[in-house]
Amino acid sequence: TQTVSQSDAHVTVFEGDSVELRCNYSYGGSIYLSWYIQHHGRGLQFLLKYYSGNPVVQGVNGFEAEFSKSDSSFHLRKASVHWSDSAVYFCAVNAQGLTFGLGTRVSVFP
Amino acid sequence: NAGVIQTPRHKVTGKGQEATLWCEPISGHSAVFWYRQTIVQGLEFLTYFRNQAPIDDSGMPKERFSAQMPNQSHSTLKIQSTQPQDSAVYLCASSLDLRLGGREQYFGPGTRLTVL
């Protein structure tokens, strides 16, 4: 059984602030972790992934995430958010079909 | 590249009616996935095809739900005798061959099903 936990349901930040979205997982197989973003009324878009190698992975639009095996975590970060980053962010673990967390809604204010 | 196409975007059915949802994956993608999204349950995996063959349907409700992929250019999700609790956004996604490391999934805009 695989589970994904995103501890924050909603995060509010101001433009230019940094943000970290937390993701913890449990999975017994080979780890494949990813983050997706969903803007209001849209489908999900892939941000980044970790499978092996460097635990810090870079994604689109300045996002990065860091894998920690000891903490079973894959937190997403951005150094300086823009209003267009307002969306719901989903962490996922998979072998094939993705298992998602419940998502973190990020609201960016000017 | 038009991305993953899902039709219809919105569908309203009466309780007990049948609903068929369509998905056209990205050309060249060999894996197709179906998910369901609700406020309460979040995103749930339903089923997955690879090269048109059903691989994993562990997320599909055992009754009333079925999925097919008759050719490489489209997949359908059929719900018989729809119930109000089937109301959700149904998302289709496709990806390159998973065995070759192509695991990023590309999602369609979804079909919002409302069962009255």
By DSSP, the count of extended strands of chain A is 12
The first-to-last residue Cα distance of chain A is 41 Å
Uncertain regions spanning at least 5 consecutive residues of chain B: none
The coarse overall form of chain B would be: globular
According to DSSP, the number of beta strands of chain B is 11
Structural class by helix and strand composition of chain A: mainly beta
Could you tell me how far the N terminus lies from the C terminus of chain B, measured between alpha carbons in angstroms? 35 Å
Largest interface, Cβ cutoff 8 Å: A-B, 20 and 26 residues
Segments of chain A where pLDDT lies below 50 for 5+ residues? none
Q: What class, by secondary structure content of chain B? A: mainly beta
Radius of gyration of chain B: 13 Å
Strand content of chain A: over 45%
Instruction: Give the helix proportion of chain B (percent range).
Output: under 10%
Cα shape of chain A: globular
Q: What order do the helices and strands of chain A follow?
A: EEEEEEEEEEEE
Order of helices and strands of chain B: EEEEEEEEEEE
Please summarize the sheet with the most strands of chain A: 6 strands, mixed
Defining traits:
heterodimer; A: 110 residues; mainly beta; six-stranded mixed beta sheet; four-stranded antiparallel beta sheet; 12 strands; 54% strand; globular; B: 116 residues; seven-stranded mixed beta sheet; 0% helix
Report on this model:
The complex is a heterodimer of chains A (110) and B (116). Chain A is mainly β and 110 residues long. Helices cover 0% and strands 54% of the residues of chain A. In chain A, strands 2, 5, 6, 10, 11 and 12 form a 6-stranded mixed sheet that branches. A 4-stranded antiparallel sheet of chain A has the order 3-9-8-7, with no helix packed on it. In chain A, strand 7 (56-58) and strand 8 form a beta hairpin. The model of chain A has no long low-confidence stretch (mean pLDDT 93). Chain B is mostly beta strands. Chain B is 0% helix and 53% strand. In chain B, the strands form 2 sheets. In chain B, strands 2, 4, 5, 6, 9, 10 and 11 form a 7-stranded mixed sheet that branches. In chain B, strands 1-3-8-7 form a 4-stranded antiparallel sheet, with no helix packed on it. Chain B is globular and about 40 Å long. The termini of chain B are far apart. The chains are: A mainly beta (110), B mainly beta (116). Chain A binds chain B through residues 32, 34, 36, 42-46, 49, 51, 90, 94, 96-103, and chain B through 4, 31, 33, 35, 42-43, 45-48, 55-56, 58-59, 91, 93, 98, 101, 103-110.
